[in-house]
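#lab-general

N.A. 3:47 PM
ok so I finally got the sequence cleaned up, no stray characters, all 477 residues accounted for. can someone with queue access submit it? mine expired

B.Y. 3:52 PM
send it over

N.A. 3:53 PM
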Amino acid sequence: MSSSPVAGSAAGHRFGQAASGRTLPDGPRHPRAVQAWLWLKKPTWFLDHCWTAYGDVFTIRLPFGMNLVHVADPELVKAVFGGNSDVLRAGEANAEIIEPLVGPHSVLVLDGPEHLRQRKLILPAFHGDRMRAWDATIRDIARAEIARWPVGQPFALRPGMQAITLDVIIRVVFGVEGTERSDELRRRIVTVTRIGRNPLLLYATRDRRLGPHAPWARFTQARDGLHAALVAEIRERRQAPDLERRSDVLSQLLLARDDEGRAMTDDEVRDELVTLLFAGHETTATSLAWAFDLLLHHPGALGCLIAELDGGATDYLDATIKETLRTRPVVALVDRRVREATRIGGHTIPAGAVVCPNIYLAQRREDLYAEPAAFRPERFVGQTPPAFGWFPFGGGIRRCLGASFATFEMQIVIPEVLRAVTLRPASPRLARVRREAVTFVPQDGARCVVTGRIPRPGQASGDVQTLQASAYDPDAR
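B.Y. 4:20 PM
back already:
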């Protein structure tokens, strides 16, 4: 069995070696039910507390014998990502929670050759040249949503960003045009998403005979309806005379062939569309909401970004996106289920435990980032993020397939907002972090106020109100 040397806190040990011990790394002593409550309701506080008390490797023990071994040391994170995928199973770790939603053919729940096959089939759809063809569509979607924002009234920004990213999924990923069909898909997606936002209640009723109105029954009915609508779209698209000329992701998946010349089945395509939907819609929308919450509460950074965009450059924009994803990662960790007892950082991790490279903690290390809790985009201007100290999209062969698309979308939407409206935060404080399903979201939805609309070049100003620098001052009222 192959393994790789690990430095730092794992000096003298090798990750990926089989071992026979049963000792888990230290962790809090609270009852499992209490730890579960803390993990669900106070996740950032609980992670910070455990990191301070137990160091870079610690165990959170949850009900039903689930043991999460969190890893915050970059060298150990590197070892996990580069470890033996037959021993460290990402798909297996994901499947128990998300397979009922994304289906058994999703790249997220597969391991081994099946995972690599699906990954190779999907990745070309997000090639840079293909994405650039979507630029105008994404801009149009963003402008239409921004035009609906009220002026002078506090509102939550995240729902607006969700509307943008959902329309992008429907038009760019699914390639669905026309109001009636788009509206049907949007309704089905929103229904599934709304039910899935309380996974504790959802899974507490899983497979129980509690009637058609129980959360799990409502979820499966909504999911099956969405799956059926997508399969109908897939079958119709296969017959489209312009299939080879279309740029949407669905059409590219239908055209893709593996090394043996095989196409994806309807069920495989369906599961990958659902995966791209739920991995790329809510997460990108939340990252956009966090970006504006941070920018509006840091007027110096906002001013630098606006000045750069006015000058036609994008270095500070790229740095702002990286710093947003560092300080406010939407997903706190990635996980690998251990199939054989394994050594890590001086500990033997027994089979059945789940090893979790912790994105939230690794990206807040003082030895990697000066003032790690501070929002400072300039730290990434002309600088590459530290290896395995910045991995909001995961890493290794399991790195998020939509990472480049999410970044591309943010690079379009952020400037579109800043060119269309002036904003101020509705509160003098940054939004608190709240867990929603598996994501970290702004507690208040990132509430802000549109203080003015900016006419585009060549557009008559009419009664469009424009405010100057004071509009960017979070103390302005």
